[in-house]
Amino acid sequence: MMRRKEFVGSFQVPEEIEREILSRLPVKSLFRFKTVKKSWRNLIGDSTFIAMHLNCYGSNTDGFLVHGCYSYGIQLSRSSFDQPRKYIIGSINGLVCLSDKIRCFLKKDDRLRIHICNPSTREIMELPQCYHDHNDFLSGIGFGFCRKFNDYKVVKVSYRRDSSSSEAQVQVYSSNMNSWKMIKIENPSLWTLLPLYRGSGCFNGAFHWQGLKKSSSKKIIKTVVSFQFDEEVFREINLPNDPDFQGDVQFFITEYRDFFSSLVVKQGPNVNVYKVWVMKEYGAPDSWIKQLTIETFSFKIAITDSFGMIPKASKWTANLSYYYNGIVLVARKAWFRCPKKGSTTSFQ
């Protein structure tokens, strides 16, 4: 028996097997295992292992949590933030980007506090201050991931209030460099970014905003503006030339079954109509198709966008108390947890 104990005690699991096992564990377990031994702590913090863990575990879509909040900041309890209100800019790979300001004028001495946090590990990092001049108007903030360089980036777009030109000033933060840089853009006055809560999100390595632009006939038309994090360039995605996107309608940028999509909402006195448009080939405007049309009884809703997090979920949905093919509709000021089995739980 003594020899067996000695044999077991001297057995060492190969490093590649340890790496494979750890990469399949939940984040909370990894957070605890960092204290087991130094080699595990170094491994779990390694960027190569983090990418491996995302591939193995990050694709799990067994459930999601939705907060339907329309025009309010969020209260972060038991955190290190000293401001009571924060706005969610976006989330990717389990990281969440928060800002204390959106769509506002900034004086030269004003602080714009942007944080990147990992809710699973409770780690929070405040970004260094970015440059802004006197009376800059903060138009948009985006958050995403550059796969080419394994780099998380934040883009900030602002305009000079007292300038005769509508030229945008664009700055990009790199987590690898932990610094901001100014970049030049083509056609800087082409788009006017709409408030982030009107539908924004990260898809296919780019952050997306709703936008407005002037047509050749000087008519204001709706469009989508994207910032590609790999190339650090802006691009335009034309919306379908369809009455669904004309007039006073709401549309929201989202993801539907791994496709770039737009949810059009028309609220009536008795019936709400939701139409899902899907871009079958990303970036090709001719590939837009109308995938779904849903009619429900009328109730006040808030479509979760930049003020809420929706981890990727493409198998089910919740319309108050039932699912419908990937569209998430939530009542105002309510939380819904939608597990894989098909039931819905509401938390007021």
Plain-language structure description:
It is a single chain. This protein has 348 residues and is mainly β. It has 2 domains: 13-60, no CATH class; 61-74 and 85-347, 6 Propeller (Neuraminidase). It contains 5 helices and 23 strands. The protein has helices spanning 2-10, 15-22, 27-33, 38-44, 47-57, and strands spanning 63-67, 87-92, 95-99, 104-106, 114-118, 123-126, 136-146, 151-160, 168-174, 179-183, 192-193, 200-203, 206-214, 220-228, 233-237, 250-256, 259-267, 271-279, 288-297, 318-319, 328-329, 335-339, 345-347. The strands form 6 sheets. It has a 5-stranded antiparallel β-sheet with strand order 4-7-8-9-10, with no helix packed on it. A hairpin with a 4-residue loop joins strand 7 (136-146) and strand 8. The longest helix is centred in the first third of the chain and has 11 residues, at 47-57. It is globular and about 75 Å long. The model is unreliable at 61-78 and 299-348 (pLDDT under 50).
